[in-house]
Design goal:
It is built from 1 helix and 7 strands; from the N terminus they run αβββββββ. It is globular.
């Protein structure tokens, strides 16, 4: 392989690595037994949180009420909901139908 082709391959690899570094990580929060696990998680700006429903029959949702957002649709067993956090801050949330049972959580974004 010539120097020009080697340089091009190196540039492509660097570009792909840079894009994947910007894409952020995905963190999983499990919904089971009427709670979020973990209840509090700290992530970096650009990361995504995935709430996975591990219940046998129960539906859940995620509502960032204090941020002025609408509740997301319910997700049922073996389904999930994802949200990417681009801005640093503290994001408390609840499961709308189960808030009275103490199903609350917090996402801290650095």
């Amino acid at each position: 392989m010539g120097k020009r082709m080697a340089g091009l391959c190196g540039a492509v690899i660097l570009a792909l690595w840079t894009v994947s570094a910007w894409a952020g990580e995905t963190h999983v929060v499990i919904t089971k037994d009427m709670r979020f696990d973990p209840e509090e998680i700290t992530i970096r700006a650009g990361d995504t949180v995935r709430w996975e429903n591990h219940e046998r029959r129960q539906f859940h949702n995620v509502w960032f009420r204090e941020a002025g957002e609408d509740p997301v649709p319910y997700f049922f067993p073996e389904e999930y909901y994802e949200k990417t956090f681009d801005e640093p801050g503290v994001y408390p949330y609840v499961c709308e139908p189960h808030e009275q049972r103490g199903m609350v959580g917090v996402i801290k974004v650095e």
